[in-house]
Specification:
The protein has about 425 residues and is of the alpha/beta class. It has twelve helices and 17 strands. The strands form four sheets. The protein has a seven-stranded parallel β-sheet with strand order 7-11-6-1-4-5-12, sandwiched between helices. A five-stranded parallel β-sheet has the order 14-13-15-16-17. The relative contact order is 0.11. Bound molecules: flavin-adenine dinucleotide (FAD). Flavin-adenine dinucleotide binds next to helix 8, helix 10 and helix 11.
Amino acid sequence: MTNQTLNNQSDDKGKYRHLFVVIETINSDLIPASLEMLGEARRLMDKFNIQYNSDEKVIAIVLGDKIRNLSQELIFYGADAVIYADNPYLKYAINKIHTKIISKIVTDSNFIGELFPYDGADYVKPRYMFFLADNIGRHLSATVLADLDSGLASDINKLVISDLDIRHQYKTKGETIRYEKVLEMYRPDFSGFLWTTILCLDNRNPDIKKEYHPQACSIIPGTFEPITKDTKRIGKIAEYNPVFDEQDLKIKVIKHEFVKNPVQFENYKVIVSFGRGIKDNPESNIKLVEKLAKLLDAEIGISLPVSKKIFHLNEKLETLYITPNRVIGTSGRKVTPIIYIAIGISGATQHLEGMKESDFVIAINPDENSPIKDVSDIIITERMEDVVPVLIEELEKRLVPDNPGKKESQLQVNAYGKL
Ligand SMILES: Cc1cc2nc3c(=O)[nH]c(=O)nc-3n(C[C@H](O)[C@H](O)[C@H](O)COP(=O)(O)OP(=O)(O)OC[C@H]3O[C@@H](n4cnc5c(N)ncnc54)[C@H](O)[C@@H]3O)c2cc1C
C-alpha cells in the first residue's frame, strides 16, 4: 500500500463539514463564555476559509426556552448560521434530552444540506465541534460524542487547524501520511506542568479502518476573547423542531436555585492561598495563613489537591478552608485581586489560569525553580514556616498607635486599592 493509496482513502468528499458550536444559556440568556468559544471558532474558520479556500461555516446550536431572539446576537458575535430549538421542555439542560437533540441536529443531512447546499457527496457529520468545559458542557460533550461515535478532548485552552504528517503503527500502518485540516487541541497534562496536544485522527490503516469525526473538544471558560460585536454581520437562522421521547420527559426539574458562593473573593483586595507546601505541619501552617490573612484583611484560597482533604485537620479548619468553594484555577474560581500571595503552591498551569491576572503576586516557596516564579513579582525562596511568622510579626508591629485595632498594612492595602 503506497502513501498515495492510503491518502486517497481519507478524502472525505464533503461528508464532514462545518464547525458547530454548542451554545449554553441560563434563564433564556447567553452564558458569556459561549461568546468566547464562538469568537475562537470565527477566528479559526476565517483562517480555514482562506487556507483551504473552503465555504465551510461556523454554525451555532442553541437549545432552550424563549431563546429564539438570541440567534441574531450569535450572528453578530461570529456565527454564519444559528440553529435553535425553542421549547419549554428545553428550559433546563437535561443531559439526556439535550444529547439526543444535538446529535440529531448535527447528523440531519437534509437539514444541514438545505442550510448550506454543497455540490458533493452528502453531509454526514460535523468536521469540528466545540462545547464549554463547565459543569453542563463537560457532561454534554462526552455524551454527544459517544452518540456520534468519535473522540473528545476536554478542558482545552489552545486550538490550531493545520496539516500534519503522521506515522503510526496502527493508525497509518507505519506509513507517513498527510492528514489535512487537523484540529490540534492543546491542554495541560495531568501534572499541570507539560502541554499535551490531542488529535482525533481517522484510522487510515486498511486493516482497522475507522473514521473519527467530528474532531471535538470542550473549552475552558475565560480562555478566549469574544470577537467585537458587529451588528452588520448577517447569517442564516433556522428553527429545529425537536421530537421528544415520552420516556425522557419523565425527568423533571422540580426546583432550580442559584446558590450564592459563600466565599466572595470579589470583595477582597488581597487573597492569600495555600497549597500542598503546608504539608509538614498542616494544622499549624493553616493557622499561620489564617493569621496573615486576617492582618491583611484578605480572603483565603487553596489549590485543587488541598480540597481533596489530603491532610488530617481539626473539624473547624477543615470545614472553613477545605472546600471546593475556595479552589483557585480552571476547576475553581478565577480571581483578580490587587495582591495574591501563593504559599506552598507550585504554579501548575491549571492554578495559574485562575490567578495570573492578579496585579501583584508574591510567592513563598523554597524551590526557586517552581513555575509559580514565572507569574510572581516577588518570590521568597524559603519555607513558609520560616517566612510567614516574620511577616506576621512585622505586620503586628505596624499597629497604628492613634487608631487601635486598625493595622497600618490594612490601611496601605486599602489606599493602594483605591489608586
Ligand atoms: C483537569 C485538571 C484540572 C485541575 N484544576 C486545578 C485547579 O483549578 N486549581 C489547582 O490549583 N490545581 C488544579 N489541578 C491540579 C494541578 O495540576 C496541580 O496538581 C496542583 O495545582 C498542584 O497543587 P500544589 O501547588 O498545592 O501542590 P504541589 O504541586 O505539590 O506544590 C507544592 C509546592 O509547595 C512547595 N513547598 C514544599 N514545602 C514547602 C514549605 N515548607 N513552604 C513553602 N512551600 C513549600 C514545593 O516546592 C512545591 O512547589 C488540576 C489538574 C487537572 C488534571
